[in-house]
Amino acid sequence: MMKTVLSASRRAVRGRGEGAEARIVRSIGEAIADRRLPPGTKLAEESLAEVFGVSRERVRKVLLLLAQRRVVTLIPNRGAFVAKPTAREAREVFEARQVIERAVVEALERIRRPLPDEMSAKLRAHLAREEEADRAGDRMALIRLSGQFHLLLADFAGNATLAGILADLIDRSSLAIAAFERRSSHSCSATEHRRFVEALESGPPGEALRLMMEHLDGVERQLDLDARPDGAVDLKSVFADRT
Amino acid sequence: MMKTVLSASRRAVRGRGEGAEARIVRSIGEAIADRRLPPGTKLAEESLAEVFGVSRERVRKVLLLLAQRRVVTLIPNRGAFVAKPTAREAREVFEARQVIERAVVEALERIRRPLPDEMSAKLRAHLAREEEADRAGDRMALIRLSGQFHLLLADFAGNATLAGILADLIDRSSLAIAAFERRSSHSCSATEHRRFVEALESGPPGEALRLMMEHLDGVERQLDLDARPDGAVDLKSVFADRT
DNA sequence: CTGGTCCGTTTTGTGCACAATCCGCGGCGT
DNA sequence: ACGCCGCGGATTGTGCACAAAACGGACCAG
């Protein structure tokens, strides 16, 4: 038996209910984080309403929520688009992440070793999943898992408010990466995550923090944040050495 | 001449326009921060629509935005209420503020002294306003100015994203203070702010940071975060030593 | 006096229809 | 060939009407 049957005739079942909006928000949010919806993509209300089997105003509400989280941009009388961060905003987001994740890791380092079994177990289980996705070459899963890893750490730190803020920043990081990623590079984060966990469990004090800061720096440095915003490219330099 | 004339007959002028929603959000947000709307207050859609001279769905949208910022709580089929943070949430908010404001002050301390004229001037102007509100005993103005002070510092730090996050946290601080303030105490923050600015301008390195952390600790310590949430009070202990 | 049920009123939730706005395209003039 | 203007189609924005649900009071039974 299939898990869920997607069909227009089922809209009464799929579309309704308390958490319908939350489901759609998650769904779109994940699609954006996974880059199935690249920055700049138009999100037409009618289409989304059809896809999710809900009325147009429900979609409208969802888009308003996503806009508040800066994941989509709402342009009056033009519609909703997947947000396309500026280079400046991208830098700010990564800086904000460093600020918050530093605090998270500092809190985690204050926990007496050995780490609680549950925490350790969850971390190792997560690493296993990341490495499997890595082996399988499942890029989308890897991106999602990478975000979840940082969020998992924030949860362990015990401050749900900070974790919530970080969740937003992680989504926006995905957006920034999608917008500014260099064609080349991409050192897998799975191994860096593993090293971090090892440092956290049995490394010298401060080692985990150092690794995390380097990790975030590394991710940011893989971006091409000097690129001009689209449409402002210098045509002269682009065609300089062409004949 | 008065700045703005509030009148129902002006609804066509006041209610319309691009920034109508932003205006209402600010208006309600300030009212909550100023504690003219204490935690738990019901925010009926129809009433608000009438007050601001807009349609009910516009109010609805505004309430959705405020709910996203955790300033109001939306209970399905019950309506919107001014959020009433739990003690845990209050602690989390203050901890989050420390995390972010530490980063802000560290960034400010990295600026070479003397501080740029504009920055210095704005800070001093702000201090003057705070002290005047203090002398005048204008409690509401003092609360608002106190929040603006911290936000001003974040602006100077140059990260708009972090500043935006902090703005939310400051609003929620006001809520927490309103919910957990002790009847007694309240050391004026104006003098602490002045000392901070002096330390920032000409104090030894780290002094400003120390003052800011103490300041935030002080604010939090003025709260009674051990109070049980309303309705869950332990009647036995309340009437323990009564006859 | 306590506790429970029913019903009217008030408030919130949702779909729909219509108004407003914008985009693309074709025509026209320079 | 380039740019300006205006129109048709499509998309978004908004008010309205009705459906759904909750609160409060009245009434009643124990």
Automatic annotation (TrEMBL), chains A, B:
Name of protein: GntR family transcriptional regulator
InterPro entries named among the record's database cross-references: GntR_C, TF_FadR/GntR_C, Tscrpt_reg_HTH_GntR, WH-like_DNA-bd_sf, WH_DNA-bd_sf
Pfam families xrefs: FCD, GntR
Domain HTH gntR-type: residue ranges: 18-85
Listed SMART domains: FCD, HTH_GNTR
Xref: PANTHER family: HTH-TYPE TRANSCRIPTIONAL REPRESSOR NANR, TRANSCRIPTIONAL REGULATOR, GNTR FAMILY
Organism superkingdom: Bacteria
CDD domains found in the cross-reference section: WHTH_GntR
Alphabetical keyword list: DNA-binding, Transcription, Transcription regulation
